[in-house]
Structures are given as structure tokens and as C-alpha cells.
């Protein structure tokens, strides 16, 4: 049966991606991200078969138990991994591809009160790190890595690494299955501040030279 096959696949994904997971039984009992994905499946089915109230009830109950809010209208691909999961919000028209990793505090949300498609489309093999916000009806390409705390407001091409507020592309690379190294991520704001600091030092040196030249002329 496809439902149970999908659950087994979700559990296997956790075992592959989380070194703290010891066995499938532990994952099934102790991982709220797995619970949220399991219950999203019947909620999504109900939503697509004109039982929207029942779908919302299932979704709301799942939120109470897991701290993860997934609208039943959201489309989630295979082998999605929601790690820790607390305060994750996934909006109604969100579309998530296969092999996506989502950490705690992530919002895949909309902007404003527009109807229709108003949430992001996430490609395959995307990593959305802790506290990141992806807001709006645009596409995040395949193999994209979004740094912790970033706010992404526009489309991101395939294979990019994005950090900062607003999200800035700091790296373009070939597709890879490697996890995002948060420690070595460049900080675009820090880079700009360093450029400004160097500029100020250069201007101060020029000003000193000019003042010294004026003093020599007076003598």
C-alpha cells in the first residue's frame, strides 16, 4: 500500500540523515517531523476530495501534538525530512519537491492577502536551515541551500547558496547532496561592512596627507 510505503521511506530518510536516530522504531515514536508528515498524507487527501473541514481538523490536531503547522493544501514530495520541527509553518499553496530537508523554525509562507498561488515552490534536494523564511509565490531551484535565519523574497536559481536578510546568493555550485556547512558560510553584511571600513581608512589617510600638504605650504 502506497501510504505505508511512504511512511517506511520517511523513516529510512531520517535514519540516513540524522546521526542521532538509532532505529526505525525510535524514529516512528520520537520524531515529530515524521508524525507531521504521516498525518499530512490523509489531511492532504481529504483536502483534495472536498473534505476541507476534516482536513483542517487533522492538520490542527497535528499542530497541537508536534508544533509543526502544515496546511492540508500543501504538496510535499517524497523523502522530506523535517528535523526537530518546532515552529515550522508550511502554507496552503506551497509545493515541496523530493529529498528536501527542513529545520526548526522555518516558514514557507506568503506575503499579503492575495488569493491563488501565494506560497513558494521548493525544488528537489533543497536544504532550508533553522529559522529561515521563504516568502512569496516564486520558485527555489533544485539543490539550493538556504542559511539559518535567512529571509528569501525572490526566485533562486539551481545550485545556489543563500544567506542573509534579504537573502543574497553567495555561492553558485554544481548539484551536490552534501549538507550545508553553516560554520563556513560567508556573511554578505560583514563583507560589505569590511569594504566600508577599508574605504573609510583610505579616505582618512588621504585627508591626513592633504592636511599635511597644506601645513607644509603654510610653512
From TrEMBL:
Main location: cytoplasm
Swiss-Prot/TrEMBL keywords: Acyltransferase, Amino-acid biosynthesis, Cysteine biosynthesis, Cytoplasm, Repeat, Transferase
CDD domains: LbH_SAT
UniProt catalytic activity: L-serine + acetyl-CoA = O-acetyl-L-serine + CoA
Family listed: Belongs to the transferase hexapeptide repeat family.
Cross-referenced NCBIfam families: cysE, EPS_EpsC
Protein name: Serine acetyltransferase
Species of provenance: Zhenpiania hominis
Name of encoding gene: cysE
Amino acid at each position: 500500500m502506497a501510504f505505508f510505503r511512504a511512511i517506511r521511506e520517511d523513516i529510512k530518510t531520517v535514519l540516513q540523515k540524522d546521526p542521532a536516530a538509532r532505529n526505525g522504531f525510535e524514529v516512528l515514536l520520537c520524531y515529530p517531523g515524521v508524525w507531521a508528515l504521516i498525518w499530512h498524507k490523509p489531511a492532504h487527501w481529504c483536502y483534495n476530495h472536498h473534505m476541507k473541514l476534516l482536513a483542517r481538523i487533522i492538520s490542527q490536531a497535528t499542530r497541537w501534538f508536534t508544533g509543526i503547522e502544515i496546511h492540508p493544501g500543501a504538496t510535499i514530495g517524497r523523502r522530506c525530512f523535517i528535523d526537530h520541527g518546532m515552529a515550522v509553518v508550511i502554507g496552503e499553496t506551497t509545493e515541496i519537491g523530493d529529498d528536501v530537508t527542513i529545520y526548526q523554525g522555518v516558514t514557507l509562507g506568503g506575503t499579503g492577502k492575495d488569493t491563488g498561488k501565494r506560497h513558494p515552490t521548493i525544488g528537489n534536494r533543497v536544504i532550508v536551515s533553522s529559522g529561515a523564511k521563504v516568502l512569496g509565490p516564486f520558485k527555489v531551484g533544485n539543490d539550493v541551500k538556504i542559511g539559518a535565519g535567512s529571509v528569501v523574497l525572490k526566485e533562486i536559481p539551481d545550485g545556489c547558496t543563500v544567506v542573509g536578510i534579504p537573502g543574497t546568493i553567495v555561492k553558485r555550485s554544481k548539484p551536490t547532496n552534501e549538507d550545508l556547512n553553516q560554520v563556513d558560510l560567508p556573511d554578505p553584511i560583514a563583507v560589505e561592512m569590511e569594504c566600508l571600513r577599508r574605504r573609510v581608512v583610505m579616505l582618512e589617510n588621504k585627508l591626513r596627507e592633504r592636511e599635511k600638504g597644506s601645513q607644509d605650504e603654510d610653512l
